[in-house]
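REQUEST ID: PR-0412
SUBMITTED BY: lab tech R.K.
PRIORITY: routine
TASK: structure prediction, single protein chain
INPUT:
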Amino acid sequence: MADDDKDQERTEQPTSRRREQARQEGSFATSREVSTLFMISAGIVVLYLSSAWMYSGMSEVMRKYFGLFRGELTVEDAHAIFQDLSWDYLVIIAPALAIPLFGAISYVLQNGLNLSTKPLEPDLKKLDPIAGLKKIISLNSLAELVKSVLKVSVLTYVVYVSVKAEWENLPFLIDVDSAASVLYVGQVTFRIMLRTVWVIAAIAVIDYAFQRWNFEKGLRMTRQQIKEEHKETEGDPIVKARIKSMQRDMARKRMMQEVPGADVVVTNPTHIAVALKYDRSKSNAPVVVAKGAGLIAERIKEIARKHRVPVLENKPLARGLYKAVKVGAEVPVNMYKAVAEVLAYVYRLKGKGGR
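STATUS: complete
OUTPUT:
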């Protein structure tokens, strides 16, 4: 029941990482019926194109080697004949040996070219009888059973109908030669195989759709799994928040260290404070070395007064600098005039008007 509850909780779509892990583990939405369809279709094409050549080759081999068995044969002769006969048969059936390759092609078409050795690795969990019993008694096993019974039943019916249609012609095969009998049997077999392909094609489409649905269902995740995965990839939100807080504290300390060297602190006067510094050798315009609101503004003014940095009230300028200029950035052109007036006033206070 616990497993059922977990399955019911898997309502979230799988993440890209979950899909990648499934591919690395060799888990794909693969339909065996699609592979069967490809192999049978390939078999029909191969037999249709090479049946005449295979028939003539088999006839030639029989005529050639049956004549050799009329005399006495030594062990060496039998061994040589067996080798030659095996090679001749291999050449004749060579086109049919390519049929299994179409099964591999169907696998690539379904899942792409993905090679994984994970399923081949030893796993003691596979020896667990309880887990094995759960696999036997499952929706997938039931679907496989129903599919197998349905496939065998339908194919049996197709073969029965095809043979029944030719039943009246079978007695006449006694009066025809072997070549005509083989040709007739081949034509009937070919028609049966074509009808079989249509049946297997319908089963393959249904089975592939079911395998895709079942695969996607198995990949679904719970909200807790998504949260844990997010923690693994992006980091714990609590830890990240703590790191950001420490980074802000360090940046604030560095900013406060720049206040004693500022030329002036502009306020609004109680909520905002902006510290400016102008060094012609380093910048083309005054730079905001520190700014803050609330308690930080009070701290900036406190440090400024402690180090005898002028603190001037200019509400529009303080608000404009606080909103538009980042710490460490130069004052924009549209604020040059207002800032220049403040600095000129400060220089006059310090007796630096000549500069």
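NOTES: The CA atoms of residues 168 and 208 lie 39 Å apart.
REVIEWED BY: pending
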